[in-house]
């Protein structure tokens, strides 16, 4: 007689191998937005843990791959939250960068470069860019939290089989309110949100497209997300 437990274990191992490329893809995408000191192998490891946990409920999901993406990304985000991207030191550094941007813009009559900002702050450009990566990713986590209720992202709710007619109406209303909130952003903020969150481009590439400093892109993104948070709370 075959051991049903051994069969389930074999099936789980096959699923892990099948979805491992998905975990790696998500990990490398997130890696583009965080400081280089964080090893992508750690992201993959935590993503795999999220995948294993998600497999337990995979057969109850209407959209399995979407469900796995959300759970894997969520596990990696939880790990990054544990590294305290929103620490007091980072928030204080963000204020200093904003103040440097304001002072140098007034002095130079144009937006300063990252090198000029680093010199103004009395630090190396590598240090500035490292901190900008941490600041930037802290806002990505904030945007994720806009739709989090008991650690369930709105995309996960959308893909659930447990939704009834009333919940479907609520979800559609939420998506419509987000669209309206984004419409209230100015054009540059909309572009940054589009390039960072939908196209998933690193800040450096966004800065090249906008022809401005990485510091300025980080500032625009932070302001846009704070606006979205306020607007969604109002809704």
Automatic annotation (TrEMBL):
GO terms for biological process: DNA-templated transcription initiation. Keywords: Coiled coil, DNA-binding, Sigma factor, Transcription, Transcription regulation. GO terms for molecular function: DNA binding; DNA-directed RNA polymerase activity; sigma factor activity. Signal peptide: none annotated. Residues 15-83, 93-143, 181-229 form the RNA polymerase sigma-70 region domain. Residues 83-110 form a coiled coil. InterPro entries: RNA_pol_sigma-70_dom (IPR014284), RNA_pol_sigma70 (IPR000943), RNA_pol_sigma70_r2 (IPR007627), RNA_pol_sigma70_r3 (IPR007624), RNA_pol_sigma70_r4 (IPR007630), RNA_pol_sigma_FliA_WhiG (IPR012845), RNA_pol_sigma_r2 (IPR013325), RNA_pol_sigma_r3/r4-like (IPR013324). PANTHER family: RNA POLYMERASE SIGMA FACTOR FLIA, SIGMA FACTOR F FLAGELLAR. This is FliA/WhiG family RNA polymerase sigma factor. It comes from Aquifex aeolicus.
């Amino acid at each position: 007689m075959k051991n049903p437990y051994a069969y389930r274990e074999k099936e789980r191992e096959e699923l892990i191998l099948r979805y491992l490329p998905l975990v790696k893809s998500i990990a490398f995408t997130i890696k583009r937005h965080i400081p280089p000191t964080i090893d992508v192998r750690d992201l993959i490891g935590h993503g795999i843990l999220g995948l294993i946990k998600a497999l337990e409920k995979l057969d109850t999901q209407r959209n399995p791959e979407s469900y796995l993406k959300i759970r894997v990304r969520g596990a990696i985000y939880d790990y990054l939250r544990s590294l305290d991207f929103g620490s007091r030191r980072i928030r204080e550094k963000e204020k200093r960068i904003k103040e440097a941007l304001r002072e140098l813009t007034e002095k130079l009559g144009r937006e300063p470069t990252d090198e000029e900002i680093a010199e103004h702050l009395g630090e190396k450009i590598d240090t500035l860019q490292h901190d900008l990566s941490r600041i930037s990713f802290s806002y990505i986590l904030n945007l994720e939290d806009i739709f989090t209720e008991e650690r369930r992202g709105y995309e996960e709710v959308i893909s659930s089989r447990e939704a009834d007619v009333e919940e479907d109406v609520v979800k559609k209303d939420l998506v419509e309110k987000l669209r309206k909130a984004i419409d209230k952003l100015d054009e540059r903020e909309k572009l940054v949100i589009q390039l960072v969150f939908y196209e998933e481009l690193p800040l450096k590439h966004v800065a090249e497209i906008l022809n401005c400093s990485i510091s300025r892109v980080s500032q625009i993104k932070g302001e846009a997300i704070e606006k979205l948070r306020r607007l969604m709370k109002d809704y």
